[in-house]
Design brief:
The protein has 93 residues and is mainly β. It has one domain (2-70): Translation factors (Elongation Factor Tu (Ef-tu), domain 3). The protein has no helices and ten strands. The protein has a five-stranded antiparallel β-sheet, with no helix packed on it. Residues 13-77 form the Translation elongation factor EFTu-like domain. GO terms for molecular function: GTP binding; translation elongation factor activity.
Length: 93
């Protein structure tokens, strides 16, 4: 998933928005951005809380233990570490 925007919600954490490119993401999954991992603490779409999101869904992912500086617009969230040379279609998110 390529990050479209990053927000900080007081007393909740950091929310990143974007569209899931392929596969599925669930609450509790561990995702990679650059060389760091983060646990998905919540998923929302259009003010509705979800347990999972599938390819094509536009969602916001909540990370409670992250800082806004950990993410930037255009970064790619994925389900496994990588060097960034893989085609985006191979990423789960």
């Amino acid at each position: 998933m390529k990050i479209d925007a990053v927000f900080v919600i007081k007393r909740r954490g950091v929310v990143v928005t974007g569209r899931v490119d392929a596969g599925e993401v669930r609450v509790g999954d561990t995702l990679w951005v650059a060389d760091r991992t983060f646990r998905v603490d919540g998923i929302e779409a259009f003010r509705k809380s979800l347990d999972s999101a599938s390819a094509g869904d536009t969602v916001g992912l909540l990370f409670r233990t992250a800082e806004k500086a950990d993410f930037s617009k255009g970064s790619v969230l994925r389900d496994s570490p990588g060097d960034g040379t893989q085609a985006p279609a191979t990423f789960v998110l």
